[in-house]
Each structure stands twice: as C-alpha cells, then as structure tokens.
C-alpha cells in the first residue's frame, strides 16, 4: 500500500510570504513531531506558463500574489487521520486555527487528501 498525501494550494500576497513562512515552519515542526513523514511548503517561483494552466491562473492569483504549493506525507489515510487529530489539538497551533489570523484568505485555499498511485 502506498503513502497518503494531504496537499494544498494557496494564493498569497507577496508581502505576506515571510509571515506565512514563519507560520509554516511552526506547523511543519508540529506535524513532524506528531508523526508526519514529510512536510513540504513551496512558494511559486516560475509560474508564468503559456501552453498550460499556470498555478497563478488556477488560483486566480493577482499580480502582487504568488502561490504556495504544499504537501504532507503520511503512512496511510488512517495514519493521516490520527496525526491530524493530534495536530489540531496541539496548543502551539491554537492561534493559527482561527482563519482571521492567517496571512492568506482561507476561502481561496484548495485542499485534498490523495492516495499514492506511483512512488519511487
């Protein structure tokens, strides 16, 4: 059985990227401490695609925005559920659970759980 991945894409104003990175560093350490196998957050760098749908177009990101592309790897969906439950109860992330405290618009965040179909 393959690993399970939670993935998300978030448009974010460039000026808030440093604030977001600090939040993500704390979140990543908490997820790893509670058992996530990997925690990766990436900020868009080369997003201007002409022949394909760009992440900026996909997220309707404005000129002053970039896109966060991120994923968390787990052993299985059940493992993901256990880890996420522990993370959501962790007091270190309590303030970041309030959508008004995020440096991005939560309503524009795309999120989903994915079963692995190919892995090397």
TrEMBL record:
Pfam families: DUF1428. It comes from the Bacteria. This is Uncharacterized conserved protein YbaA, DUF1428 family.
